[in-house]
Amino acid sequence: MNLFSKISLAAAIACAASLFSLSQVQAQPDPKYGIHDRSRPTPEAIESGYPGTQDKVGKAPSDAIVLFDGTNLDKWVGDNNQPTKWVIKDGAMECVPGSGFIHTKDSFGDCQLHVEWAAPAKVEGDDQGRGNSGVFLGGGRYEVQVLDTYNNKTYADGYASALYGQYPPSVNPIHKPGEWNNYDIIYIAPRFNEDGSLKSPARFTVFFNGVLVQWDRELTGPTGHHVRPPYQKHDIQQPISFQDHGNPVRFRNIWVREINQ
Ligand code: MG
């Protein structure tokens, strides 16, 4: 092997190594499909086996931080730290369309988050316009989609419990409109190097009505619509937020347990 070949070989190895290390931190959703690709197979509807009509609200584990117990919005604020205009009805907080997102006053990093939600019982709209909201981790950056996808077809990476625009859920165990669903989300915040580059991506595991629908997914970056923007350095601890997407979606029994392992 002459010197030039040796240099080429070394360059090829270095390139492969850098690509390998890149692949360690930049996940790539299935490259066969574009963002919001309507030709992508949609999640199969299954029955969760979990009651969607339960009147009795569950309780948080005794060591959890309760974010909403049905009585007040003391731990929440609206956009720009303004008082929220979301309302409490029958022990649930409800999005008032046009009022903006609602955010926790406190910030959280790696955590287990429990959220129960219900789309409006009266079905209005279709596709992404029906019972749309979202659970955002990381200060409004990373969305677990909330959408009434009960007999409502939309693009696969926009289904309820999708990591929006990136990963469809494996199945669709949603309950009927007006019934309660629950998400148990395990979120690992992304880490960044001093220079702002990505050290490790955000990771999500999601149970939807007790069914595992997302297993340790590595996000490509923040949630976007028709885009997958790159990561931008941020603190680990960030508020948890729910989206106002123009539909009066309700939430209840919201609690979080921080992961300190
Ligand atoms: Mg949404």
Describe this structure in words.
- The protein is mainly beta and 261 residues long.
- It has one domain: Exo-inulinase, domain 1 (Jelly Rolls), CATH 2.60.120.
- The protein is 9% helix and 29% strand.
- The chain has 1 helix and 17 strands.
- Strands 2, 4, 5, 7, 11, 14, 15 and 17 form an 8-stranded antiparallel sheet that branches. A 5-stranded antiparallel sheet has the order 3-6-16-8-9, with no helix packed on it.
- The radius of gyration is 20 Å and the shape is globular.
- It starts with a helix and ends with a strand.
- The relative contact order is 0.24.
- The N terminus is likely disordered.
- Magnesium ion (MG) binds next to strand 8 and strand 9.
- Magnesium ion binds next to strand 8 and strand 9.
Summarize it.
By secondary structure, the chain is mainly β. It has one helix at 3-25; strands at residues 44-45, 65-68, 76-78, 87-89, 92-94, 102-104, 111-118, 133-137, 142-146, 171-172, 181-188, 191-192, 198-200, 203-208, 211-218, 241-242, 250-258.
Which terms would index this structure?
9% helix, globular, binds magnesium ion, mainly beta, 261 residues, single chain, Jelly Rolls
